[in-house]
Amino acid sequence: MEVKDCELVGSAETYPQVTMISGAQVTLSGCRLRDGLSNAVWVKEKGQASLTGCTISGFHKDSAIDARDAGSKLVVSGTTIRDGKRPILGQDGATVEVKDCELVGSAETYPQVTMISGAQVTLSGCRLRDGLSNAVWVKEKGKANLTNCTISGFRRAAAFDAHGFGSEISACSTSFYNVDCIQSSDIGGWVWIY
């Protein structure tokens, strides 16, 4: 399914604006998704979603985009995600690719990018800024790879945080501005910056 140059406004609690499950696929391009009480985009059970040139804002009760389950994939490029609880969440072995995007803001205890339970994210050429928690947080063997990204304005928590054995964050050619602490890790979590 393809959705182009549309605006999606609002959603009920527990009902995402776009849901892809059981292998379903969607491509959104040039769309504006805003002000929902659940996710903007939710993929699970090998569902797939591709977002290009979109703007996502105002998702204060849940993650803007959420990928769950092994085989589920979310690809986001040229998109701005702002003014919400948590821009990106990956769980249970899902794969997320983010390229040339801007993530602005997050709620106090919700990192901008969260990968848990073996989920993996690749960010390239992205700008992450002005969150009230971490820029990237991984746990339970979650993994994050960043290349040519800019991290700025994280003053209340470490930019990167890796929790638990097998959890890893690697950042190559990534710049940091106005960040009080770049990395934090505990019991077996690793953060690599080179």
TrEMBL record:
InterPro entries according to UniProt: Autotransporter_pectin_lyase_C, Beta_helix, Pectin_lyase_fold/virulence
Residue ranges annotated for the Right handed beta helix domain, each copy included: 10-107
Domain of life: Bacteria
PROSITE patterns associated with the record: PROKAR_LIPOPROTEIN (PS51257)
Signal peptide: none
Name of the molecule in the record: Right handed beta helix domain-containing protein
Organism taxonomic ancestry: Bacteria, Pseudomonadati, Pseudomonadota, Alphaproteobacteria, Acetobacterales
